[in-house]
Each structure stands twice: as C-alpha cells, then as structure tokens.
Amino acid sequence: MYIARQIPRALELCRQVVQPTIFPTFSSKNPPLARSYGCETSSWPPRAGQRRTLRDAEEHRSYSRARRRFCTSPVAMHGHLDPPKPGEELRVTFIDKEGEEHKFEVAKGDNLLDIAQSEDLEMEGACGGSCACSTCHVIVENEEMYDKMDEPDDDENDMLDLAFGLTETSRLGCQVKMNEELDGLRVKLPSMTRNLQASDFSGAKKS
Amino acid sequence: MSIARQALCVSRNPLSSYLPPRVSRQPIYLIQRRQNSHAVKDGRPFRMAVLGSGPAGFYTAYKVMSSIENAVVDMYEYLPVPYGLVRFGVAPDHPEVKNCQDKFEEVASSPRFNFIGNINVGKGLPLTSLREHYNAILFAYGATKDRKLGVPGEDSLKGIYSARHFVGWYNGLPEHAALAPDLGSGEEAVIIGQGNVALDIARTLLTDVDVLRKTDMTDYALATLSKSRVKRVRVVGRRGPMQAAFTIKEVRELLNLPSVSFRHIDPFLFPSNIAKLPRTPKRLTQLLLKGSSTPAVSAQKSWSLDFLLLPKQFHSSSADSNDLSAMTFSKNSLVGPDAFDSSARVEPADGEATFPTSLAFRSIGYKSEPIDGMKDLGIDFDERRGIIPNDGYGRITSLSSDGTGIPGMYCSGWVKRGPAGVIANTMEDAFSTAEAIAKDWESEQPFMAGGQGWDALRSEADQRGLRSVDWADWKKIDAAEMERGKGKGKPREKFASIHDMLGVLD
C-alpha cells in the first residue's frame, strides 16, 4: 500500500523536474536516485514480480504523454496517442523479453508500435512505422487472435522475413491496428539483441 | 556466470528515462556505494568517445546513455555532417529507411552528447590523444573501402566503377562527388555481385529519372542519369539464387518497376520442392520464379540475375584500348551435401560466358581498414576478416595473445562484425556492444582513467588547425540543404563538398 500511495507523489515530482529532453542530466551534485524522484520505494515501472494494474498503467500513460510534450524532436510524435473514449477502451497486453506483462487500455485505431512507444516499452521502430524495417516485430501469443487480423501484405512479410526469431504468428507492430475484435490482444516482444553463442563468432564466416 | 548471461543483466527498460535508468536491480545502497568507489572515479561521468556517426555509433551511444546514468558521449565524425551510410549509403528512393535519423537526432539533443564533426581521428587528430581523456573509446567507423575482384583489366580500363564510389557519387559523398561515371557509351551494364547494393545500383539505372528527381539524389547525378543510355542490366553472382545476399524487398521493387522486364531464371537453380523450404527462402524463390508482370516486348528496359559465374577478365575495345568492351566469366557449379543451402559453395565448371558491355560495377562487398594509431593503443586489426578482433559483444581483444580484452576499447557495427546486414542488424549489434559496456562499467571492470573529453582536446585540435563542427552547426547545414531542395521539390539538395558544407557556417 505504501508503494501505491507513493506513485502519484512520484509522478508529480517527475513532472516538476522533467527536462526538455529524453535524457535527464545527472551529476554528482544532482544525484538522481535519492533526491528528486523518490523512486527507491516507488519505482515505476514496478520491478519484476510486481504486477501493475490498468489504473496504474493509465496514470503512467497520461504521465508519459505529458512528458512527451516536452520533447522537441520529431520522433516524439510517436508518443502522441489520444486516450480511448470511456466505454470504448480496448485492452492490450505486451509481454516483454523478461516475461513481464504490461497491460494498457487503448483506443481503436492505435497501432502496436505507437502504443509501445508511448508507454516507453522497449520497441524501436527504426523506420518510424513505415514498414521498412523489422525492429517492431511482435509475436501474437494466441493463434486465434492472429487469425482475426488482416493478413500481412507483401511489404510487411518482406520485412518479417528479416526479423530475428520469426514465428508463425509474427507481425510488425506498426501494421497492427487495434479494433474491437482484437480486444484483449496479448503480444510478446522478442529480444532485440541476439544472445550470441561462441559458435556465432568462431570465425567461420561465409564467403 | 557465462558472458551471455551477464550481457543480459543490464537495464530492463532503458527507454524509461524519466526515471533514472538502472543498470542493475541492485539494492539502492549498493548503487550509492558504487558511486563512491574507485571505478566511478568519485562521481565523475563515464566519458566515451565514439568514432563514426552512422547507425552503429548512434545506436550504441543511445543505449549506453540510457544504461549508464552519467555517461557523456563525444561522437567524432570526419565529415562535417552526421549519419554515415544513412546519408551516403541508403538509396535516395528509400527515404523511409532514413527515418532512423529521428532517433539519432533525439540522442544528439541530449546535453550529455557532443557531436564533433569535421575532425578526422587518426589523420587530423591523433588517436592516441584521445586515450588520456576518455574512459572508453568505441570504434564504429564502418567499412571505408571496398573489395576488389583482382582480375585483368580491372584497374586499367575506363567504364569499371566501384559500387561504393558510384553510390557515394549519387548520394553526394564528397570524396566521390567527382566520379563522373560515363553512362552514355552503351546500352549494357554489368553489375558484379548480388547484394542489396548491387540491386540499388540496378534500380538507379533502370528507374525513370523523373521518379528520382523527387528524392534527395544530387542534381549532378540526376543530370548524368538523365543522359544514360543503359537499357539492359545484368546482375551477376558466382553462386546461385539460394545463396544470394540480396533481400526480398529490393528484388520486389525491381520486379515492380514500370516498363522494365525481367529475364526468367532457369528453374533448375531452385530446389524441386519449394513447399518444403523455410519461410524466408520460400517466399524469395516464389517471387523470383514469378518474375515481372511486364512482358519483354512492351518493356523499354530489362534486367536479369545471372548465376554461377566467376569474373575472369575485362576486355578492352578494339577502337580504344582504354575502353571496356566486354567481360568474361568462367562458369561455376554448386557443390556440397545440399546445393540449395544458403551456405553451399561453388567449384569451377567447364565453360565461359562473355557479355559485351562498356559499363561494369564491382559490388562484391565493403571492407574495413584500421585507423592510424590503433597499434599504439594495443589494438590489432584482423586483415583477413576485415574487422577489429572482438569477443562478439564488441569488447576489443588482442589477436596475438590469448584473446584478452583491452580495457576501455569497444567496437560496433560493420567494423565489429563485417560489412553485411540492414540497419536493424546494426541496431541489434550496437545494442549488444552497449550492453557489454554498461555491464563492464557496472561490474567495475578496468577502463581507461577518463578525463575531460572534448573540452580538453579542443585546444589540441585548434593548435593543429582543425575546425570542428558541432550539432548546432550541422543543423545550419541541414537547414541550408533543405532550403536548397525546396524549389526543386526535393527533400534536400546536399552539399557535395566539405568546402560548401563549411561555407554555410561562415
């Protein structure tokens, strides 16, 4: 309960101190951990094992939107998502590479890349959601849910062919838009860095 | 704990920078104690020099700055303009691929990031000068040369171009802006190599030049292309289609070009049971077999993929012994337990093929080379593989001894793993190096002593008569380029000389 009580306070503190950049400046005179944020006891997102509720997520979400407005760079545009209208919320769960679940309520039409980026999940979207890379690769957990989606087009499949860890239910996050049928969607984020084995680096380069 | 396990223990969510990024899940008191420990140099920042401002440099910088809370990055670039091959390699008609620049710009907007352009580390500023002023140096300067064929006529005849030079030329890379390729002497072109660079060149030669006018391709390249007489392009590889390095998107683009036909590939080059192939080769095979919907009779231009041909000789013209007139290849055949495996090899077979052509492009791969002064830092260069020897995570290791690491020295991108792959691969690769750096810093592995970074080096650069360009300067060049492009309906008109780039700042 202490943690729950601290969240709004921590968020408020964050709003006050946030800098107009995605990288806060820290120095020895301005130690970030102890002073400004109070995040020792109320770290957000919660550490592994702590489940966060949809309400928590919504608070965090509104915060992350506020933060994004301080950003001046164009990429921050990905963070701008309108909140769903009351009664029209669609639920989506992202499972990150550590297996931690992140649940959000989103609006119809939001795509998975925009949702993940506005929630600061680890998803890159190197080409800015234009279906020209494979960095927003997601794996749909449930095959039935995958079948409810529109078929990926050639462009998307061409990019998926390059994705690491491709599965039968892989999609590009930028191409999956939420709708009523996909309410309750669960997707996994594949690891972005390959877990290299010694054999990958034995010098046996293809010629 | 294995290295693999260790490398995964760094920051769980580096994007959540609104809260201080955590390198580990250690209890808070451990982190506080660490800040007073020797490894963190009494609260002084972690200073890293990055050599190169392409995707490898930027993605590594991004992840390091997200993972180590007081990391300060100085990024050195030999040109006054950033982004490396995103600016000078990515094809002008692939603007969406360049969107990764948005992320790089976001990184550069951090007060913990300094762009130091127009400083050539190694040639202008000695590499050894950096050693005193940083905790770590990241080598991310990519592949600056290209591989040669080593066949007769390659160096002596006119009309033979390096793909790297040609791509640099149309993209406004200062060192190749004066290439002036002769595209008007014949209707044939032969491209040797079957990677995506080869297909980029084929597409450039076959695309209607009015389509390219809407891109950021340089004006002088558009002028040359508009006078091109090239009508038939052969893209030649020494192995088969199942071993080719190109990716499906680039093939599909070429097959979809209007008024351009494609010569069908002999089906014996493909496995008989396509349905059994894994997804990626299956889709590529299906596409290649389907070919183009433009029939040869109604096409203005055509292209083909020619397989199992090894370059043997360039021939000179009888009219002018300096001009290319034809190229001969000797035939190869696939060997091995599975000739359709992507790693299948070839051996010489009987027969030759000669194609008349006055234009040839060599596109068999890029090559990295060492920077002057690396030896003085104890860094070897693996000439055979064309990379800086490293442990696979980007920790630079010694070639000669037992492969021990060199404190504070890291690499990422093409100079780490060789010149292959798309930006997504470089991003993955950069992230793995960044995770190794963060992990080493966190676990108090030995680094260099650190110092004041560029603040301390600036005076040395001044003394050497070097003129540095910072990010605000680049933004002025950037704005001037976009302004120049406006009247022409182009996203930008690049400055193709260092003199003109710097001229914006005077």
Automatic annotation (TrEMBL), chain A:
Source organism per UniProt: Lepraria finkii
Q: Which cofactor does it need?
A: [2Fe-2S] cluster
Entry's CDD domains? fer2 (cd00207)
PROSITE patterns tied to this protein: 2FE2S_FER_2 (PS51085), ADX (PS00814)
Q: Which InterPro entries match?
A: 2Fe-2S_ferredoxin-like_sf, 2Fe-2S_ferredoxin-type, Adrenodoxin-like, Adrenodoxin_Fe-S_BS, Beta-grasp_dom_sf
Print the keywords alphabetically.
2Fe-2S, Iron, Iron-sulfur, Metal-binding
Please verify whether the record's keywords include Secreted. Answer: no
Q: Which domain of life is it from?
A: Eukaryota
The protein's name in its UniProt record: 2Fe-2S ferredoxin-type domain-containing protein
- PANTHER family assigned to the protein according to its UniProt record, in alphabetical order: FERREDOXIN-2, MITOCHONDRIAL, FERREDOXIN/ADRENODOXIN
Q: Return the annotated region ranges for Disordered.
A: 37-61
Cite the 2Fe-2S ferredoxin-type domain residue spans from the record: 90-193
Keyword Transmembrane belongs to the record: no
UniProtKB/TrEMBL annotation, chain B:
Q: What class of enzyme is it?
A: oxidoreductase
Catalysed conversion reaction: 2 reduced [adrenodoxin] + NADP(+) + H(+) = 2 oxidized [adrenodoxin] + NADPH
Give the InterPro entries listed for this entry: FAD/NAD-bd_sf (IPR036188), Ferredox_Rdtase (IPR055275), Ferredox_Rdtase_adrenod (IPR021163)
Q: Which domain of life is it from?
A: Eukaryota
* Compartments (UniProt record): Mitochondrion
Requisite cofactors: FAD
* Keyword set includes Plastid: no
Keywords linked to the UniProt accession: FAD, Flavoprotein, Mitochondrion, NADP, Oxidoreductase
Give the EC number(s) listed in the UniProt record. Answer: 1.18.1.6
Among PANTHER family, the record links this protein to:
GLUTAMATE SYNTHASE 1 [NADH], CHLOROPLASTIC-LIKE (PTHR48467:SF1)
User: Family assignment?
Assistant: Belongs to the ferredoxin--NADP reductase type 1 family.
Q: What is this protein called?
A: NADPH:adrenodoxin oxidoreductase, mitochondrial
